[in-house]
Specification:
Elements lengths: L2 H5 L2 H12 L8 H7 L4 H12 L3 H7 L2 H7 L26 E6 L8 E9 L2 E7 L4 E6 L4 H11 L4 E4 L1 H11 L29 E6 L2 H10 L8 E2 H7 L6 H9 L12 E2 L12 H11 L2
Parallel strand pairs: 1-6, 2-5, 7-8
Antiparallel strand pairs: 2-3, 3-4
Amino acid sequence: MSTDSAALHYDTIARAIAFVRARPRHTPPSGAVAEALGLDLGQWQQVLAEWAGITPERFLHCLGRAYARERLSPTPERLPERDAGDPAPSDLARAVPLTWEPMPPASGRTVALGHGLAATPFGDALLAWTTRGVCHLAFRCRDEAALLVELRSLWSAAAPVRDDAHAHRLAQRIFPSRAPSTPVAAATGASGPAEAANPAPGGVHLILRGTPFQVRVWSALMRIPPGRLMSYRQLATLLGMPAAPRSVGSAIAANTLGYLVPCHRLIRADGDAGEFRWGRERKLAMLAWEAT
């Protein structure tokens, strides 16, 4: 199942998550979820298999606080050291390798900025890239015009180049299929003056554009492997700022590389998912998708 095909199911997944979240005291059975979606149980099983290779029972388990507490990592004494260019860790065989480099928020340079809209397993997303790497990934919560206004405000000195075809290829690389026995679609081919660099073959290179403190927080997030979680307080403690969680939270809120800089892997200590820039349903969908 390709990324495009999985993307067709996201609205159904989001409605299922909203239905379950509206019943916090008693998790509804899979049959009740399917009925609420206007599907029979077999159709609901097929949707989940194509979207993430996950069963209805596993999907429901991944939405609960008990699952989140299971996946909370014990607080290590320190985060593993990583420098720019080092690949991010992964305990998922099909997770995309990530490398990164910092960029000051006001570098004074005019750059060619490729951008385009692409389907993902979590709905449409606006991706942007320079010749050095991917610098923006924002999920559509409003209309496309709002996404473009935000991008242009963040990169006001850039020369924009629209290229939906390359955005599609990047999405295929970033979101490899979770469906069983399905080959990952190749993400190849050149595309115009703002083609993203790719120092890691088969992976994705990121541009972390922010202050040194923001980059420090974002790079720490990238050390949390897929399928593992960390609490906000744990992250602040590991960054040596146990008394300043608000500063850490501000840096997290400034992240514009959704999913790639994985702020969705941060939850509250009690297992509650907490807030997310692109919606709580989308955050829970990401956690369930990474649980396969």
